Amino acid sequence: MNKTLFLGTLAAGAMLAGIAAAGTLDDVKARGVLNCGANTGLTGFGAPDANGDYQGFDVDLCKAVAAAVLGDQSKVKYVPTTGETRFTALASGEVDLLVRNSTWTFSRDTDLKLDFVAVNYYDGQGFLVRKDLGVTSAKELGGATICIQTGTTTELNLADYFKSNSLEYTPVTVVDDADAQRQFLAGACDAFTTDASGLASARATLPNPDDYVVLPEIISKEPLGPVVRHGDNNWGDIVRWTYYALVEAEEKGITKANVEEMAASSTDPEVRRLLGVEGEQGKFLGLDNDWAKRAIAANGNYGEIFETNLGESTPIKLARGLNALWSQGGLQYAPPFR
Amino acid sequence: MSGATDLPKPAFRLSSLIYDTRYRFITIQVIVLILALLFTAWLVENVRSNLALKGKDIDFAFLWRRGGYDIGQHLIPYTNDSTHGRAAMVGLINTLVVAVLASILSTVLGVFLGVLRLSKNWIISRLVGVYVEIFRNVPLLLWIVLVAVVFSETAPAPKDFKLVNGVAKASMSLWDSVAITNRSTNVPFPLLDRPLPAIVTPWFTLPTSLLAILALIAGSIWAVLRLSRRATAVQEATGMRPVTWWQSLAILFAPMLAALYALGFHLDYPALKGFNFQGGLSFDHAFTSLTLALTLYYAAITAEIVRSGIQAISRGQTEASFALGLRPGRTMSLIILPQALRVIIPPMISQWVSLTKDTSLGIAVSYLDLRGTLGGITLNQTGRELECMLLMMLIYLIISLIISALANVYNTSVKLKER
Prior knowledge:
The structure holds two protein chains of two kinds. By secondary structure, chain A is an alpha/beta fold. Chain A is built from 14 helices and 14 strands.
């Protein structure tokens, strides 16, 4: 891994010159494929299914961007990244877009020279424990051994939380979610901590989900969102507004099924602008006017994507909570399309 | 020697830099040197300009900023308020601990196995042969992961040691002193009730009690040696060796026992408290499995080196030694091994160096060594890939050079003295 990272960094330099000059959009169009940084495997967010095809909440955003830019949601190459390798992969140009449960923080946005363009999942860090451990609160975890994924914000939050509560703990630092789950299952740690959504996903994939419980404490704010490289604002705009198009579509009741019909018959000026019937919004992004229509037609609006991958009908059973639309008491809010 | 070769040598001209073999080698070397320097300069400039393009600079200031993360195994005081530099130090020490321990253990085990490999006993030599072939022909990483998985999957969880209705699923071994759980090995640890005041400096704490005990032991050994020398003198003078064993024992143990009693020595036994065993000394399985796998793997390679070293010594040496009446054991230790060392040491140096570098494979079992702290968490949290990697390469380079230098000094001392 040392060598890969180092060579990657060196190679990054050489490649970056070309990328920065040409612009990511031109690059993606010329390549005909969107390189999307995905999770190595977090069910519901980004994981290969039985056929090896990537599926999930984050993956669907990659597909929407591919549909908007290339006109075909299948033209995505998923690059599996770990918590450690993800930002290097993005900074080096190995991926055009990173949608991998990455928390938006000040230092990543500034010092790491990345741009978080939106928040597609408002999350917080929690703890997963075995039910028979008899623990009902994170405050009772003093002296416990805790599995954490390295290279994440959770590792820092954990240290802060235990310090502010004057508790001791033993960290077991693992490379990715899969390894963390294995260690947790083998009993090498008492608790597994990551974003609450990740815990719900992990719990759903454990052999007997009912033997495990997510503790009530949420110890941090984890706004997760798509990330692009700093400096290519046009590409950032495309990803940001593709995402907002999905949110706006939910608000306006545009679904995968009725998107064509809405485009043909809607009289709402905002819907008409969004779907490219009116105005020339696509041109401002460097795309054609049907970009948003294709993005929505790919896997539906934000609500549909949430329900198919994470909602009550899936094994993960996450409620919308903070991720409901602003009009329904949540935080998901798209700026006006005008 | 003959007059025909004494042609007058042509004087130096500019063209002789190309055509005259006496000068051409200088030209070639200068050109190669210039090319190498140009290539290096191009690499450095390429990295610098491309980093500048990304808006990044080379800056080591992060080493003095708060790390913010915790490390399970730290031999020097460390909290999440410590700096990234301190975390790197903790990692470096963890690396060195494993490297030193595994080097010593693998060398001892390897020498032992290498000698056994040459045993006349067919079963023993074949068994060692099988061991060597199995261990050195499977990648080290797989051994490390295997040992770690065996520990974590087969050992009982800490809560299995708890008494439920008077029965516990697992119990501690060695008279209730050692607990092996699926997380760590917990052994008793010596503690002092009335220790000597420690000398505290900002960088380290001087363990005065430990040093005092070590000094006492050294003193006792010296006294015993004096005693035995005097006994030898008496024996040479009178032909009768005085009985000294009880004096030796008294000198060895009485002062130490008295000192330990005065310092309030006792063993701190591990006990299950809450989620884990507390008290005593706890070895993480990450540490144990890394050390164990490195030891077993490098012992196999060392065994081969030792075997080849011994076989390099001519059979005549053994026969001569037998002819002088030396027993096989003494032949090996007095005649064969000292000569074999000359063949053994050079490849051993590179084994120790490569063992030290291979400790970085500890990342596979979450062992937080230099690679795990500086090259892992710090790198990720600060995003300073190039700086962390350069620093880490430099540190590994320095460690390896030190090992080579020390081993070469030893090699010089045992090599054939040409007079």
